[in-house]
Amino acid sequence: MDQIILQVLNGLDKGSAYALIALGLTLIFGTLGVVNFAHGALFMLGAFCAITFSRILSLSHVVIDETQKDFLGNPLKVDVPHIYDWFGESAGQAIINWSVPLAILFAIPVMIIIGVIMERGLIKHFYKRPHADQILVTFGLAIVLQEIVKYYFGANQIPNPAPEAFIGSFDFGAAIGLKAGTIIYPYWRIVYFCFAMLLIGSVFAFLQFTTFGMVVRAGMADRETVELLGINIDKRFTIMFGVAAAVAGLAGVMYTPINPPNYHMGMDFLVISFVVVVVGGMGSLPGAVAAGLLLGILESFASMRQVIEALPGINQVVIYLAAIVILLTRPRGLMGRKGVMED
Amino acid sequence: MLGLNRKDASLLIIVAILVALAPVLLNPFPEQSGLAQFNAGYPDLMQRFVIFGIFAIGFNILFGLTGYLSFGHAAFLGAGSYAGVWMLKLLTINVIPAIIISTAVAGIFALIIGFISLRRSGIYFSILTLAFAQMSFALAASVLTPITGGETGLQTALDDPRILDGANATGNIPAPSIFGLQMGDSIQLSLGGWLWTFNVGYYLAALVMLSAFYLAIRIFRSPFGIMLRAIKSNQQRLNYTGLNTKPYMLACFVISGMYAGLAGGLMVSMDPLAGAERMQWTASGEVVLMTILGGVGTLIGPVLGAGLIKYFENIFSKINDNLLHKWFAFMPDGAEDFIVSIIYPFVGKGWHLTLGLIFMAVIIFLPGGLVELGQKVAYIFKKKNPTPTSTPNTKPAE
Question: Are B106 and B75 in contact (CB under 8 A)?
Answer without folding.
Answer: no
